């Protein structure tokens, strides 16, 4: 983990979304890890905001994120201009366990909303390793589909669902996931809104191992403030684990949903 000053290399906006590229000293990372990112904007908002790594290139000192505006912190990140200074802390958290896909068959990657970027990074790693995979992406409408160019660059045609039917299959991403599980998917990796993750965990339970990247409101990002804990049950024992430290990737079987 490093803490670094970074310079905004580019910030390409598309509606509420922005692809933010930072330049600075970049430590090697793994898919599923994240950074706490904060602009040089004074005291408010005080804390950095967690963003999953979309891609990085330590040799060229580049880091890429894809963000969506939710509140003040993400609005300010969305507004950053090239040349502005940014503080980044990372890479943080436990990555997706790629070894879980080594048994053969095509792993299934399921992304929804701003949960798509870490799965694209995971897809890039699988592509480098020569491991074919299935990519499912769910969105409310066509304009919310993300990272299609990055996936095309990997030669991957995602199976798309939209809730309004404006692109791909109408409905939820759990429909193609159900089919993939029936076709003997060996492992499922997912990131997205809580409702989607809960449905993915329920579909996978007892049938296929799943690894889910959870979201939580974060304070420090590195395990000290306990602001990000979620309930888990391991071997019948209920406890709390930190999304920033033990996660953000958890086995679907252990997460206790609200
Ligand atoms: C490990 C991790 C990785 C993430 N990766 C990305 C990413 O790659 N791209 C991206 O756009 N976002 C990502 N997020 C979410 C992002 O960090 C939040 O959207 C951001 O912190 C919100 O800050 P804000 O100041 O804009 O909004 P706030 O003013 O803090 O909140 C605005 C509204 O959004 C709600 N909200 C804020 N954060 C969350 C949350 N985490 N879960 C549910 N509701 C929330 C609040 O309750 C409030 O209603 C990630 C979160 C985590 C934990
Ligand atoms: S954000 Fe502080 S412990 Fe996780």
3D structure, described in words:
The chain is α/β, with parallel strands linked by helices. It has two domains: 2-92, Beta Barrel (Elongation Factor Tu (Ef-tu), domain 3), CATH 2.40.30.10; 98-251, Nucleotide-binding domain of ferredoxin-NADP reductase (FNR) module (Rossmann fold), CATH 3.40.50.80. 18% of the residues lie in helices and 34% in strands. It has helices spanning 72-78, 116-128, 148-153, 174-182, 194-204, and strands spanning 2-14, 17-23, 34-39, 49-52, 55-57, 62-68, 85-92, 108-112, 134-139, 159-162, 169-170, 188-191, 210-213, 229-234, 237-242, 249-251. It has a seven-stranded antiparallel sheet. Strands 11-10-9-8-12-13-16 form a seven-stranded mixed sheet, sandwiched between helices. Helix 2 (116-128) links the parallel strand 8 (108-112) and strand 9 (134-139). Helix 4 (174-182) packs parallel to helix 5. The chain is globular, with a radius of gyration of 18 Å. The relative contact order is 0.15. The site of FE2/S2 (inorganic) cluster (FES) has 12 residues, from loops.
């Amino acid at each position: 983990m490093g803490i670094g000053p970074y310079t905004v290399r580019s910030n390409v906006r598309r509606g509420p979304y922005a692809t933010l590229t930072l330049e600075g000293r970049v430590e090697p990372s793994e898919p599923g890890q994240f950074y706490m990112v904060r602009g040089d904007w004074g005291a408010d908002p005080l804390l950095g905001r967690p963003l999953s790594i979309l891609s990085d290139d330590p040799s060229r000192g580049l880091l890429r994120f894809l963000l969506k505006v939710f509140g003040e912190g993400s609005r300010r990140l969305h507004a950053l201009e090239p040349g502005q200074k940014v503080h980044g802390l990372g890479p943080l958290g436990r990555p997706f366990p790629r070894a879980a896909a080594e048994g053969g068959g095509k792993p299934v990657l399921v992304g929804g909303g701003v949960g798509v970027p870490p799965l694209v990074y995971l897809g890039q790693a699988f592509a480098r390793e020569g491991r074919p995979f299935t990519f499912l992406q769910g969105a409310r409408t066509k304009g919310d589909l993300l990272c299609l160019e990055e996936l095309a660059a990997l030669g991957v045609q995602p199976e798309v669902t939209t809730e309004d039917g404006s692109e791909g299959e109408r409905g939820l991403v759990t429909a193609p996931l159900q089919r993939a599980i029936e076709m003997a998917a060996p492992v499922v990796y997912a990131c997205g809104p809580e409702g989607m993750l809960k449905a993915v965990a329920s579909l996978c339970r007892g049938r296929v191992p799943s690894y889910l990247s959870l979201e939580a409101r974060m304070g420090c990002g590195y395990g000290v403030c306990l602001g990000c804990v979620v309930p888990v049950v391991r071997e019948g024992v209920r406890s709390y684990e930190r999304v920033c430290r033990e996660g953000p990737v958890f086995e679907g079987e252990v997460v206790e949903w609200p």
